[in-house]
Design goal:
- This protein starts with 12 loop residues before the first helix and ends with a strand.
- The chain has 17 helices and 15 strands.
- It is α/β, with parallel strands linked by helices and about 425 residues long.
Length: about 425
């Protein structure tokens, strides 16, 4: 018998509650197991009614009109797995929009399919969309409320507990799935079950069983190449796929919130790429626990002292920054990266208006000030943009500066 999983405050809660108070419909999208239902139960309490796929099948059999659920009672209707029933979604949104009261309908989905997108499009002004990631380190440490992470001058972090390296690597290996907060949960059993549920609920229907297993093979190959420029040829060879199928499925991985494809800076700025590197996105796993499971890293030490420690650490940093943006309702379109032949390796470049903020991930405890400043300064004036504060995220014990305009941030202070 499993233990009770503690609830961790989610940084997205104020935004979610604000949208529920303003708009008739809320779409909450997030990967399987990220805590969508738990979050809604916490925020809505008893003021909601849930409809699962099983409930919908029963209503179909009894010819019950689902619109009746919206027109009677003063509660929020939550429809799970909304992507599976786009026609029903259209009917419910039309009813909620005509009702006019805020917070009438919440749609949960692991991804937005083309059919679901088409059902939503006519009602865009009546709804808002939020994306939920797995738990961030900021949430686990109880240090929420700082907004989206953007490099800035060092500030007081009083109350933020310092993490030793052993605890940090255990957290990176463990991942951010809320169910794993249950002390009785077995890490490998959980992720194995997670794969099976993904197969049955999200993959078998659209792909068929044979291709669903091939999709899992591609996902495993991607995990072993996280934090690297997307090598489509290598992935095709590893998963025995043609290029078109592999590219389509990689975008499905992104739609499911499992990976994020970060474009190179040239592409993000709308410039014609000068090389193949300027066209190739960087692939990051959004949950490093899942990446470790797929890469058969069965303990924190196998990760920390194995060959994948550096790329998984880099993906952890990138995903942690991304989660803070998603929690603020910000899209990730302002993220890019820069690897080139001029000894510049910037893991992320964040664009805020006309200001570029470079972020470099370092495995050491201190930043090499002269080298970092040269790399960052090369962005000055690119596409008419100003150079804002840059950042080195590393294993330092405390925040500091590495020369003018460069902040050093311990990874646990993101």
């Amino acid at each position: 018998m499993g233990g009770l999983t503690m609830y961790v405050y989610r940084e997205i809660e104020p935004l979610l509650e604000g949208y529920l108070g303003q708009y008739a419909v809320l779409l909450l999208v997030g990967p399987r197991g990220s805590g969508k239902t738990t979050l809604l139960q916490h925020c809505l309490g008893e003021g909601c009614q849930y409809l699962s796929a099983e409930d919908m099948s029963e209503m179909d059999a009894t010819l019950t009109d689902p619109n009746d659920l919206l027109t009677r009672g003063n509660y929020t209707l939550v429809l799970e797995d909304a992507e599976q029933r786009p026609r029903l979604v259209w009917r419910l949104i039309a009813t909620a929009a005509a009702d006019g009261r805020p917070g009438r309908l919440v749609l949960e989905a692991p991804l937005v399919t083309e059919r679901l997108s088409a059902a939503l499009q006519p009602f865009a002004k009546h709804m808002r969309k939020l994306r939920l990631g797995t738990l961030s380190l900021r949430e686990l440490l109880g240090q929420t409320g700082r907004g989206p992470h953007v490099p800035a001058p060092p500030r007081s972090m009083v109350g933020v507990p310092e993490m030793d390296e052993g605890a940090l690597w255990e957290r990176i290996w463990h991942g951010g799935q809320p169910a794993l907060l249950d002390a009785t949960a077995n890490w490998d059993d959980f992720y194995s079950a997670w794969e099976r549920k993904l197969l049955e609920h999200e993959l078998v229907g659209p792909l068929g069983r044979r291709d669903a297993f091939r999709f899992l093979s591609l996902m495993t190959a991607c995990a072993k190449r996280t934090a690297q420029p997307l090598d489509l040829d290598g992935l095709c060879n590893k998963a025995e796929l043609d290029a078109q199928t592999a590219e389509t499925w990689i975008h499905l991985l992104e739609d499911l919130g499992i990976v994020c494809l970060v474009p190179p800076l040239e592409s993000a700025l709308g410039r014609r790429p000068s090389s193949r590197a300027g066209r190739t996105p960087l692939l990051h796993f959004m949950d490093t626990g899942l990446a470790c499971h797929l890469a058969s890293l069965n303990s924190p030490d196998e990760l920390r002292f194995g060959p994948l420690y550096r790329p998984i650490f880099r993906s952890f940093v990138a995903s942690e920054i991304m989660k803070t943006w998603l929690a603020a309702g910000r899209e990730l379109a302002k993220f890019s990266y820069l690897f080139d032949g001029e000894h510049r390796e910037l893991d992320l470049v964040l664009r805020e208006g006309d200001v570029l903020h470079p972020v470099k991930v370092d495995m050491g405890r201190a930043a090499r000030a002269d080298e970092v400043q040269r790399e960052f300064a090369s962005l000055q004036g690119v596409d008419g943009c100003e150079l804002g504060w840059g950042e080195v995220v590393c294993l330092a014990r405390a925040a500091g500066v590495a020369g003018r305009g460069v902040v050093v941030t311990p990874v646990w202070q993101i």
